[in-house]
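Entry 0007
Protein: Cell division protein FtsQ
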Amino acid sequence: MQGAMLRHQQPAPGRNKPVPRGASRMVAKEPLSARLPKANFNVFKRLLWPVLLVVAGFGAYEGAQRLMPYADRPITKIAVQGDLSYISQQAVQQRIAPYVAASFFTVDLASMRAELEQMPWIAHAEVRRVWPDEVVIRLEEQLPVARWGDEALLNNQGQAFTPRELANYEHLPQLFGPQRAQQKVMQQYQVLSQMLRPMGFSIARLELRERGSWFLTTGAGSAGPGIELLLGRDHLVEKMRRFIAIYDKTLKEQITNIARIDLRYANGLAVGWREPNAPTTAQPAVAKN
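Output (structure tokens):
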């Protein structure tokens, strides 16, 4: 071809240059620290903490044993707190005298509390230490609400307790019943008492007999002399409501002549009159609602 020129192209330097035989590629060597195995300290850490805890616990124990003779002082102060009406602080201190002979750390607070709560007039006791040599006692007295039979009193929770003297509590209502029914009788007393109070009646005696029948005697007061209510076994609240309704309509004017009222009827009641003014002795009058 005309005008054509052939040129011999030289290969670019560094490209496709034949590698001489026997030559090897140069590789950078890793530092010696990278090639050595690394030390694993996790195992040492896991073993170190238990050892440190044991050492610390042992040191604390030894320190406490050495300081105990200096910190454990004799009990020199007894503080009795609470509103006390039936027992004296002197009686309390005499009761716990065998316990306070111990030192601050060795005094048996649980036994002291149990001993105090065995006193008839103490319902609840709290005992605590106050550094460096004091024991504080907080007392809650029994709240007598009624007499239980002839030998005990009942608190507001229906729990019986027996003080030494009962002569000063004859003004309290007297409740009777099986020994296992103390709380039941107390609860029934509270309910019936609230229902009778607006009428001017109070409860002088409430009895639950073994067969389950209830008998109530009101106290003498502004409403008149006491009367006996025979309530039967069940539905006491309904029977009391019936009595209140008939009382306001019919019985209020004659209450001074009434000795007892029998509420064991389904729809009415029977009235028993007092002897001097009894209109009939054979059959009581029956009032229907």
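Curator remark: Residues 1-6 have pLDDT under 50 and may be disordered. The CA atoms of residues 239 and 263 lie 6 Å apart.
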